[in-house]
Batch of 2 targets.
Target 1
Amino acid sequence: MTSKLTIEGYVIASADGMLADASGTMPDSLRFEGDSVFFSASLDKVDLIVHGRRSFEDQPNSPKRRRIIVTRGVDALAPDPNNPRATLWNPAGASFEDACAAAGIREGTVAIIGGPGIFAMFLDRYDVFWLSQAPHVRLPGGQGCFTGVPARTPQQLLAAHGLSAGEPRILDAAHDVTVTPWRRR
Ligand SMILES: NC(=O)c1ccc[n+]([C@@H]2O[C@H](COP(=O)([O-])OP(=O)(O)OC[C@H]3O[C@@H](n4cnc5c(N)ncnc54)[C@H](OP(=O)(O)O)[C@@H]3O)[C@@H](O)[C@H]2O)c1
């Protein structure tokens, strides 16, 4: 059966492919107004967002969004006792489609927003991955934006999983920050 879900990914990575520093925190050096505006506006258009228990997009519209939080704290699926719009999901106990259905979504667009293990889980499923890049920021010893970085670059991993780069869009001209859509070939 063909999935009725469109799956998108969103990350901002440093020049060396990191989404967080060596302490596991996303530093202010990786935060740019143009990227925040793009990310927030993009999430406003999707039906559901998915992230690991330690990630959160922290935007004005965050409380309104339906979300799946990935955690080993449940066996399969459960409502989040702390957020009526959130579903807790353990991929070891339930399929992604079942998780989306539990969140009330059987068709539409789902945004995957991290962290690295969650991004990597969907590498064979993205319809488009929006890779924002900050070419003047380096985070040595940081957390790669996918499992498998820095042994391979994010671009190599996206290409190896059947995605091709489109035209980059400038998000912050002063800092040369761009976003590139990687679409399934
Ligand atoms: N630059 C960016 O665009 C960007 C994007 C996303 C995140 N980040 C940053 O990345 C950092 C967080 O990364 P992270 O990897 O530590 O956090 P994360 O992926 O958000 O959360 C990790 C947690 O997710 C759950 N999890 C992960 N894989 C799982 C699996 N296969 N099965 C079940 N549960 C699973 C576990 O939760 P339990 O412990 O509850 O079992 C794990 O502790 C933060 O600093 C965040 O700000 C940056």
Target 2
Amino acid sequence: MKLPCAVTLALIAMIDTIPVFAQGSPEQITEADRGRKTGAAIDPVTRCAIGRFRQCDIKLAVARGLFETGLSPSFPENAKCREIDDWYAMDYTSRRPREAYHGGIDIPAPWGTPMIAVAAGAVVGKYLGEHSARGIEIVLRHSPEDTGIPLWIYTQYGHFSEMPNLKVGQRVRMGEVLGPTGNSGISPRTGRQSTRRRPAIHFGVFYSTSELYADIRDTIIPVEGHWMDPVALFRKKLPLDSGSMKGLPEAEKQVPISIMFDDGEAFPANTEIVWPYTCTRR
Ligand SMILES: [Zn+2]
């Protein structure tokens, strides 16, 4: 990994001292809020790598795992599931004002299709997303006990048609309905609500060895956070970092996906992680 030069780091540190995080006042302490830190507590590299704010070098995000891995989902034979159209870390530069890579996967679905929680967890972020390409968004945090993976995992659900009826701090179960699919989110080129986007979920996943995170400019930033290919989550084991995923033998890049059927039955029955849309039986 190539580290950014000292000058870049110094510049980022300077920018980081600008007080952009004014919402630090103590609120009601909830289960999820135990991990909350103020923006100043996030180191400048992580802040830029995950936040990808305007002044940030995209190379920092790439160094934290935002690059293509070659993984693809393999759904159970007895299930008909919704498939990815825009892959993890695909080059979005032509759709953005500057170099950019897709920070998750998109799965198209008819308007109103319920997005479901991929694992048990707690709501840590809830955003109207009026200045975000992801639009109306929910972020969940999953403990190692929630997923069986020895990391703190964050899952991000975007493009709801309306704000889900969930509170920050609230626990959700695996498969619980979060809200209806829509196409909310601005076009980064025009800055206005996109009208042409097909209805779809934007599903992003992050991880950290720390349970701590901050909410900076409507973005959940885990302390020492990393990007990951959402398909890697379904391996349900380590490693799941992008470098290791890219290096897997081809056969292992087909990742078996565990799912929930429309009737609420999980497959396999003991899974703690499911696809963000239910599947239909064949
Ligand atoms: Zn997307």
